[in-house]
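pinned: reference chain
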Amino acid sequence: MSQSDRSQSGPVSPGAATNPVTLRTLQEMAAAGMPFACLTCYDATMARWLSRGGVHVLLVGDTAAEMVLGFSRTIDMPLEVLIALTAGVKRGAPDRVVMADMPFMSYQADEGTAIRNAGRFLTEGMADIVKVEADASFAPVIGRMSRAGVPICGHIGSRPQLATLEGGYKAAGRTATEANQIVADAMALEDAGCRQLLIEAVPPEVTELVLNRTRVPVIGIGAGPRCHGQVLVVQDLLGMTEHPPRFADPVAQLGDEITGAAAEWVRRVGERATGGQAYKMRPGEAAQLEGTQPLADGKGPAGASVHTYPSGNGGGVRRPQAERTRTPGV
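pinned: its structure tokens
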């Protein structure tokens, strides 16, 4: 399939973005009361398909530690890997807003390191905006990032990078004291220069307070339906995770589809019926091949000795000894 064939767009959902999306687009949508859609994304191929579906924002989250690298915690996400994944997503969807997640200990140690790492996400990672899990105490460093020209999304409410400190993932803002603190955090981060806020795993009443006290677009995840934007981990949405969070309602069951496709491939390979079309030699070239006689009785072409390789059915696949000297991968 040619690159032009691969780039043909499929159907677009009603209300989906078909024109390029920028941070200004999101601000205008929020002001007009038009919700915008966000999903996590970790590679160029998925980015291309999500873009065709009209998703406005692609979040390259530190959840890649779990979804891509197989860790059980987000804090194990390496900075260098996340920068590379962010750039891949932007290359796959250059006309979408790509938000990069700053991983654990990439901004907490000191302000200089935080600003440099945030800048790397914009330059090397080609991100449009950088997300930081933060409370009011991070206002000074966010202020310096903003003054340096880095658009920041402040992540409030439940903060997964604190899961180890808090003994696991949990909801936030379930008491009046916690709720008031989240609202105070939101206001402090906006005042420090955050262009957006993301609020996670809080009761809708807390979200409503944040919306009433701030002026920037607010993205929710498990925070009720009133946010300007909504985000989910894409694997949760597609039915590819074993135990999605309570706020994630899958719209497909691609996990089962992938398992079925893998099983079908196993069957085809076992039956030597992989499908597709074989390559053909140019006219007259096949007749010039040396030693086209079939293998028989331990002798290969031109009398070459034959080496027997193990096969899955307990027998052996016979190959000419000369074939063992080929360069690997060729």
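why pinned: The longest strand covers residues 152-157. Residues 1-10, 297-330 have pLDDT under 50 and may be disordered.
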